[in-house]
């Protein structure tokens, strides 16, 4: 007789649910009889956890009630949090890739004041660090100023920062470069630029490419974009 627990996990019966709750000191209650609605296969990020509602639907939920204990930790954003739960709650609510830099107050937080990091790097304890991991987000491709398409802006900044020498990349527009510029004017991301066969659009001069383009909001046309 399978049952669904309030943690969104299916148990063989109510006894096994209570055993799990007791052994791991978790407050798990019986949500409904039968299997849960999908938490077993749902992936939650930013420290959120999967919970099933009364209809058995799975949802990723941020930490709600953090303990009041004063056990400060310093986050990778150089902000001191009351405890690790408060850091996780902030990371989840703001969808930030926060981690604990070290236990205790951020005594080195002031070292980042006045420091401007380039090429997508961020300041940690007075040092500019390249991003090494981008959060697993739905793909939002960007066309960069090197005419390459990246899965998202974070991946673009990561490659710009880690390249040797570091590159200065910016977003030209959101979307695949080929959608607007044509295959003859783009290169494959993360591979050395290969001189492509120019498309008809690529043979146009900048003035010809922009002849029919009217830009709003004080924007200017470059290469037909």
From TrEMBL:
Keyword vocabulary terms for this entry: Disulfide bond, Glycoprotein, Signal
Domain of life: Eukaryota
Coiled-coil stretches noted in the UniProt entry, renumbered to this chain: none
Family annotation (Pfam families): Kazal_2
InterPro entries registered for this protein in UniProt: Kazal_dom (IPR002350), Kazal_dom_sf (IPR036058)
Cellular component aspect of the GO annotation: extracellular space
SUPFAM superfamilies assigned: Kazal-type serine protease inhibitors
GO molecular function: calcium ion binding; collagen binding; extracellular matrix binding
Domain Kazal-like: 1-38, 61-108, 124-179
Name of the protein: Kazal-like domain-containing protein
Organism of origin: Graphocephala atropunctata
């Amino acid at each position: 007789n399978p049952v669904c627990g309030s943690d969104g996990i299916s148990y063989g019966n109510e006894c096994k649910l209570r055993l799990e709750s007791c052994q791991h000191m978790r407050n798990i209650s019986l949500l409904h009889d039968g299997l849960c609605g999908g938490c077993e296969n749902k992936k939650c990020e930013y420290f959120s956890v999967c919970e099933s509602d009364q209809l058995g639907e799975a949802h990723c939920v941020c930490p709600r009630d953090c303990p009041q204990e004063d056990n400060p930790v310093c986050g990778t954003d150089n902000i001191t949090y009351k405890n690790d739960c408060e850091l996780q709650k902030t990371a989840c609510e703001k969808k930030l890739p926060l981690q604990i830099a070290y236990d205790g107050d951020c005594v080195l937080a002031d070292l980042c004041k006045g420091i401007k990091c380039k090429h997508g790097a961020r300041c940690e304890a007075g040092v500019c660090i390249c991003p090494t991991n981008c959060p697993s987000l739905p793909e939002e491709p960007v066309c960069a100023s090197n005419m390459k398409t990246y899965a998202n802006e974070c991946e673009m900044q990561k490659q710009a920062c880690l390249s040797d020498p570091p590159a200065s990349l910016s977003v030209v527009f959101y979307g695949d470069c080929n959608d607007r510029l044509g295959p003859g004017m783009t290169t494959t991301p993360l591979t050395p630029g290969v001189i492509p066969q120019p498309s008809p659009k690529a043979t146009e001069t900048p003035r010809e490419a922009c002849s029919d383009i009217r830009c709003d909001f004080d924007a200017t046309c470059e290469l037909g974009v």
